[in-house]
Amino acid sequence: MTETWETDGRSPVQIRRRACLADAGGRTGxxxxxxxxxxxxxxxxxxxxxxxxxxxxxxxxxxxxLLVAGRTCxxxxxxxxxxxxxxxxxxxxxxxxxxxGVRVIVGVGRxxxxxxxxxxxxxxxxxARPFEPSALLALLSAALGAPRSLAxxxxxxxxxxxxxxxxxxxxxxxxxxxxxxxxxxxxxxYLAARPDAVVSRRxxxxxxxxxxxxxxxxxxxxxxxxxxxxLAAAGADVRIEAVRGLGYQLTISPNS
Length: 256
What we know:
alpha/beta; WalR-like; transcription cis-regulatory region binding; Rossmann fold; phosphorelay response regulator activity; five-stranded parallel β-sheet; Arc Repressor Mutant, subunit A; Heme response regulator HssR; 9 helices; WH-like_DNA-bd_sf
């Protein structure tokens, strides 16, 4: 049975959008973003959106993406190079028919002039590709609107299989999240930002404790020991080595 919606002064687009959200089961919490892109681009965008209030749905095929759009009713769609039988222009046309209220961001390369014109003609926002994280966040924030604004934040540090959050005290090993005590996270983050460099104890103590250095030298040794054990227990392919008389060095396994 088809449900009849009261218009309440809404435009046809608003009515369709309301019906789409109802069919998707309604939504509270993070905004849904459909990402139609190749695997490499999808990984880049996922890293840029780490920690943001976004539920990301990456799809590598344009036809499959339409099925996901119908099921999730995304708040925004990001379109970049992707495979599939549908061309980007055809994808945009069908998407508009399916959900005319959705905001679309299309990434174009230097040789994508025709795609840029097609996307702009269909009301999409066109931006340069590869995506620059802060620019993409600004575009998504504008597309989603308040209160779902996105704030730029430093990207995680990737070291082999290990990814370290640049803000929150956590890391991921092969996408498995691991919480870290605050001081251990600060030590790991500082060393990870300088892989293979020898960092002196004094530099580390100053970076982590600032002017409050009383007892911090011994505390650093404790945190380094615990961090080594934690990395080894997790199976991480990085090591923190002591360089006698100089300091510490974070190295990555050559097989990672």
